[in-house]
Amino acid sequence: MRKIFLGLLLLVGALAILPLFAAFEVHVVNVTAKIENALSLTAEALDFGTVFPQEHLAQQLDIALSSSFLAEPRVDDVNYFIRQKPKCAITSNDGTSFDPENTVTGQVIVNRENNTSNSVTRIDCGPPPRDLREGESWGVLPSLCEYLSKTGEENELLSFHKPWQVENSQVVWNDTRGYLAKSTNDISDTWTIDLAVPCFGGYCAQDWEDFVRRINAGALPAEQWVQPAENEHKIFGCDLWVEVTGVSQAGWVTPPPAEPVTIFSDDFGTGDTANDIPDWDEEGDDNASSTLARAPTATGNNTASPDGGRFARIGSGEWICRPVNATGFNVLMLQYYWRGDNDAENDSDLGLVEYATGGTCDSPTGLTALVAHELDDDPAAGEEWSSWQSINLPDAIDGTAFLLRFRNAATANEEDFRVDDVVLIGLAP
Fold first, then answer.
1. Any idea where the domains of the chain sit in the sequence?
2. pLDDT by residue (tens digit) across 157-189?
3. Which of 52, 153, 196, 213 makes the best surface tag, with the fewest CB within 10 Å?
4. What span, in angstroms and rounded, lies between the C-alpha atoms of 36 and 18?
5. What residues pair up with 385 in beta bridges, in sequence order?
6. How does residue 28 score in pLDDT terms, banded at 50, 70 and 90?
7. CA pair distance 45, 71, nearest whole angstrom
8. Fold (CATH) for 262-427
9. Cα separation of 110 and 123, whole Å?
10. For residues 392 and 327, what is the distance between their CA atoms, to the nearest angstrom?
11. DSSP per-residue string spanning 73-121
12. Which residues have a Cβ under 8 Å from the Cβ of 72 and sit 6 or more positions away?
């Protein structure tokens, strides 16, 4: 009995000691990496110097695969984009001079107005990069981004555009995408950066609208690109932000990002007024006071559209509607111009953009409103055309067939809802 007892005691002691050895065991894995840029740029700054209204100037920006990327056999291609962001700087002499060595890129911040659903933006410059001297100010420069074009071998974004917009309280950037690949010997892109110089206040030349149209026919009305008179003589700025979005390994080449495809585009034609609007179903009695494609020579409230041609004038309580086949597209964006009527009542007379997932234009099912425009509110109490409107359509109708409808929800016959240059753009997966 004594021998058995001692054996059990030794066994228990061994079990208690083993975990102590494991607790003090250490293994070291040494992790290192050399981090290099995938792209190289030929210029750190583009300086247009002193320019004058309605000048059209160009500079070149070369973007190439870096020498490190070219030398590394494991990788093959790069997807990237160019984004235009606000520029912050230290200025003096009422903004007419600045310190080019101390600038930063401003961040676009979106906030909601108190007790409303409206979104407002501000540019956050952060703290100044150095102490300010007497007479100096720190903040965002007047924006040059709207007036810059980015033209490459495959993609372009013309001058007179919004570098970003706010949708559902989120900033949506108007980027231009690029793609380079060693496997196809496409190792560099040359981008032309054009500057179309704006005019100021009431000092624009008589051919200002022709100047805007010649550079970007979709950017009318030209008045929206006129700078306030107080910005004359000041330094303008914009940061071109080049960002890599993807790198693929050799043998696993990532295809270039999908290019936008125009599913349909309608400017409603030119020439005389047309009571019947081709490709659209209409609710109305096809007379001069109802829904029609209005002639550009009309006067008064029925002024010509942004492109100088006809536009769809939708009478009170009426609509235009068309079927859309978006099969094969996984991202959809609707673009258009609109204007209201100065006879409309505030907050109650609306122009609606809607879609329906089934039925017909006369009897739609699954009808959903995308946006509501107050016909007297914007722009200029219904007397002017809006800027270019862009709406991302819901994911639920990506790749489907649906009905698109513009409807005038006003209650009186005098209020009109006008739309023009309606374009639906899709991206294939």
1. 39-257, 262-427
2. 899 999 988 877 778 888 998 999 998 899 999
3. 52
4. 47
5. none
6. confident
7. 27
8. Jelly Rolls (2.60.120)
9. 9
10. 16
11. TTEEEEEEEEEEE-EEEEEETTTTEEEEEEEEEPEEEEEEPTTSS-EEE
12. none
